[in-house]
């Protein structure tokens, strides 16, 4: 039996569940000891929207202790017993997914693998470290950890560190690279027409090209909005920043939403806005709205909290 056939056999008969967070969709399986062989070809076939179940990513729920990364996590965070083993739709392994981790906690909860009431939180192991996820009245809020400039002071001083070419733009545009545990390149556009006119079915070209690829976010700033507290984490009506966002995800293509991309886009827009820019942002993506809030973390670094909904859609068995 070939390796691919063996991997397919490992999933045959297993229950797979599809979930989504603001239109970013994922296939979930429970595999506590990480015994199933998940090669890239198999994941890509399952995530194919024409010949498989269709999804932006594939997530295995496994015990943190089964991964070398997880064993290091448990040394400092023994409570993080579940690990989000995340793969992009093309089968490549990725460090983190903001919509994915919210949907992952909803999957664990609905499968009875954890108990989590509104107001409680759970620690989740990921390849980007431990993420603390709190259940809210309308979904989940995730402490995504600190954000940073990928290229350090050079980016901070100039406000840009690369150029991006995309189908629908006549000329390359300046961009800023932001890390959320995974790489992002953020481009500011001047109008909704420019944003809507992009063809993101073709991957944007970044110069200089990142060695391991990057997610590319195109943003348009909007007028300040009033957040009722239904999505965000401040819990009171406040004036917040707002942007529209479209994203081309590394290893996937254009998606309806990207959680880490929303955080990176808000961080870049806030940086460009200067000292008077707000700390809370509403990010409008094709799949809905996410709230991004900048707070001081316990490590005295500026953390990003991502809030939004998540739902399970259906279950199926692979044949």
From TrEMBL:
The record marks 184, 249 as: Could be important to modulate the pK values of the two catalytic cysteine residues. It is found in: Cytoplasm. One of its GO terms (molecular function) is diaminopimelate epimerase activity. Substrate binds at residues 24, 88, 98-99, 182, 215, 249-250, 259-260. The active site is at 97, 97 (proton donor), 258 (proton acceptor). It catalyses: (2S,6S)-2,6-diaminopimelate = meso-2,6-diaminopimelate. One of its GO terms (cellular component) is cytosol. Its EC number is 5.1.1.7. Keywords: Amino-acid biosynthesis, Cytoplasm, Isomerase, Lysine biosynthesis. The keyword Cytoplasm applies. Pathway: Amino-acid biosynthesis; L-lysine biosynthesis via DAP pathway; DL-2,6-diaminopimelate from LL-2,6-diaminopimelate: step 1/1. GO terms for biological process: lysine biosynthetic process via diaminopimelate. Pfam families: DAP_epimerase. PROSITE patterns: DAP_EPIMERASE. Homodimer. Catalyzes the stereoinversion of LL-2,6-diaminopimelate (L,L-DAP) to meso-diaminopimelate (meso-DAP), a precursor of L-lysine and an essential component of the bacterial peptidoglycan. Belongs to the diaminopimelate epimerase family. This is Diaminopimelate epimerase. The lineage of its organism: Bacteria, Bacillati, Actinomycetota, Actinomycetes, Micrococcales. The gene is dapF.
